[in-house]
Structures
1.
Amino acid sequence: MSFDVETRSSETVVVRMGEALDFRNADDFKEAFQEHVEDGVRNFILDFSETEVLDSTGLGSIFSLYREISPDDGKVAFAEVSRPVQVVVQLTRTYKVFRQFPTVEEAEEALA
């Protein structure tokens, strides 16, 4: 399972998270963002519009990304958060760490 990553600028990419981010593909996600971090990307907008499953392993991989880019003023934003992901975000209080936006475009404007 691979992640569709769309480059919006030299510092910003949009990652379409697909149906699931869980123990099965968290390592793939880490590999995908690692390449971009090495290329100097500092802002990651995660598009959860199609995501039905987000488990603790998946959430952990997002925190790994956050820990890696935050010293360089990098940001991770959630966009178009689906209902199942919203439940996880509320339960884990992840909304205190990652800003959420109704659309990818609004996230992009906020991070610009």
2.
Amino acid sequence: MIDPRARTLEAYALAAGGWREIGRFAGSQPVSVAPFEAAAIDLGKLWTPAGVTGR
């Protein structure tokens, strides 16, 4: 789940019939998380630059 206001990404995995958190990431760090660990996600590119507001 991505929260652009809090600038966070939370990753979950299905285990034993329920969802468990496998990682919580924030800021602009590069993230590699299952099942997409082969491709890092640059969180900084997801967020609107500071001081810029949407319509």
3.
Amino acid sequence: MTECIFCKIINGDFNTEFVYENEYAVVFRDINPKADTHLLVVPRKHVESLNELDDEVLLGKLMMTVRDSAKAAGLKSYRTVINTGKEAGQEVFHMHIHILAGSIKL
């Protein structure tokens, strides 16, 4: 999907620094953080939202990526959030998982 901002980030169009990555996902800092640490886990495969994700293996790999990237960032405790749909606060329509730690400003 050429117009998707997350697809562009994954493709290297913005020189975004990945704090963690694997064959399934990239992880980078949210540009509008809602916590002291606010990371985004974004699958390399474009999927609009959790409602469209029908790949159980990918979903499992994404959750393992959450764990692994939080550990790599030195986080012992954190919150995960998946906004699904506009009404739930999803702003970028490429499924992603928020990792929030420290003081949270929701």
4.
Amino acid sequence: MFDTIVCMSDLVPQYAWINGSLQPLREAAEIVELRRAVESFACARRAERHPVEVGEDLRELRHLIDVLELDFSRRAAAYAATDQAEREGSATPQDWIRHECRMSGSAADAAICAGEQVRALPQGEQALEAGRIGFGHFTLLARTARALTSSPSAEPFDERPLLAQALAHSVGRFRHDCAHARHAADAQAALAEHVDVVEARYLELRTGEDGAMFLRGFLDSVGGATLRTALEPLARFAGAEDTRSRGRRLADALVELSSHALDSGAVPATRNVRTHLQVTATAETLSGAAGSPAGELEHAGPVPAATVQRLACDAGVTRVLLDARSAPLDVSRERRLPASATRRALLARDRGCVWPGCERPAAWTSAHHMVHWARGGKTELDNLVLICHRHHWMVHEGGWQLARHSDGTIVRIPPLPERRPTARAPDGAAA
């Protein structure tokens, strides 16, 4: 279109090399007029208006923005049809628009696509300008048109069926309409796109200096729906005292889901040994003695004694005796707590988490010692209760306590502000 070499906006903001010579940049008169009008509107003082009137203002403003978005897309498509972005050092027109117009990459691509498809969507253009659909509808319509006409042998795109749905549906619902239309037109292409997205799945686990883990990843729609369906029931509020944010509840649900998979043996064995958390701790740490070192959790590093005691409540325990040089003298066989008969009786009695108001079933609980066995508590039915992952954490690391009344009912006691969290529940006398 023009023999433009390079823009010198950083060095001489109002000049550029055009047609082989340095020329002043001229701003379009209509844009100058529009900017003045927008600045005047933005700076104007406004009287207080009724919410109904404010809502009408929002509708009209959104329509005006949509009209401007459509004009922007036309100009973006015209710019993308030239090699100016490459001349200015950008890899693609989308990249130049993303950077120079302060947009996301997907928004820049949507603008170019909408501008390229305007001529193929005259009725959609009219509907937008009349305020009957939004720019979000139009970009989805344009992307669908581009996808269905990309093949040289493709039929001309008929916008009328989808436009009728755009007039009736929200942008979110219309996105589904477009997906259905693309699948109906070319199921193989839709499958290929889905496979590409699945191939893009990834999960990155980065461990911080203190053993905490940072997660970053991407899932396709089916994978994301699977994970969300599994987490949502576990992420519900767990009683009146549950003040966790939704993000915290979802994170706790992911940990609980993983713990359940390990507890139930659903995870494949490693070297013919059931996969599970491996904790190494001294007897002093397990009993909570003052001055004892932290425990060591595989893949996590040092963990507090309260965490060691929670994990040891219902775990396989192997005793290792060391000499003065830390060489093993004796290694016992693993023993599981509690015994099978006791566990069956516990399941029959409690039927699920005993925390008042909790509805976790027995399969999602572990046996908790009211008085921890490392402190002399016995692995007997009277000293055991079933408790879910969330409330087990609250009892050990969170400082809550469980006590049993003489009639057998369980009561919960919140942590005292002046006391540090305790790793064990009080016995009947303390209650």
